[in-house]
Amino acid sequence: MTATAWILNGPNLNMLGVRQPEIYGYATLADVEAMCREKGKALGFGVDFRQSNHEGDLITWVQEARTAAAGVIINGAGLTHTSVALMDALMLIEAPVIEVHLSNIHRREAFRHHSYISKAATGSIAGFGPNTYVLAMDALAGLIGDNDPEGRITA
Ligand code: DQA
């Protein structure tokens, strides 16, 4: 059975491409998804890519990912800085959790410097635009693909 990485995206990320392009660039979320699918093929794992503007959707997906995902890559967007509930859900995941941000949240406004998601994450990557997601997939493969001589995820 192919292992699957769940890639979860929070509020307003559906607006990528038109949303503050000077910060987030011109790539759309569909472009980011296509990059992730291509990378998934190269690494030998499936990709389940989702976005919601609703906190509850993300929490439910994280709960589902607990038993279904080989790892979770999450861009909580604005919820990163506010949601104890999303952090609590992520705490239950035993597989690797990688926090991603398109922008470098640490060089932006002070309110973006604190991340609840970081408390539940194996590691965090921020600031490389859409490529942040690709880097996170490499990191995930490194964390859970150790047993495969070709570096692919096997469990
Ligand atoms: C973001 C950074 C957050 O601070 C912001 O609220 C977002 C996007 C990023 O990917 O850079 O919505 O998560």
Task: Describe it.
It is a single chain. The chain is of the alpha/beta class. The protein has one domain: Dehydroquinase, class II (Rossmann fold, 3-Layer(aba) Sandwich), CATH 3.40.50. 35% of the residues lie in helices and 17% in strands. The chain has helices at 21-24, 29-43, 55-68, 84-91, 131-144, and strands at residues 4-9, 46-51, 71-75, 97-101, 123-126. A five-stranded parallel β-sheet has the order 2-1-3-4-5, with helices on both faces. Strand 3, helix 4 (84-91) and strand 4 form a beta-alpha-beta unit. Helix 2 (29-43) runs parallel beside helix 5. The longest helix has 15 residues, at 29-43. The termini are close together. The mean pLDDT is 94. Bound molecules: 1,3,4-trihydroxy-5-OXO-cyclohexanecarboxylic acid (DQA). The site of 1,3,4-trihydroxy-5-OXO-cyclohexanecarboxylic acid has 10 residues, from loops.
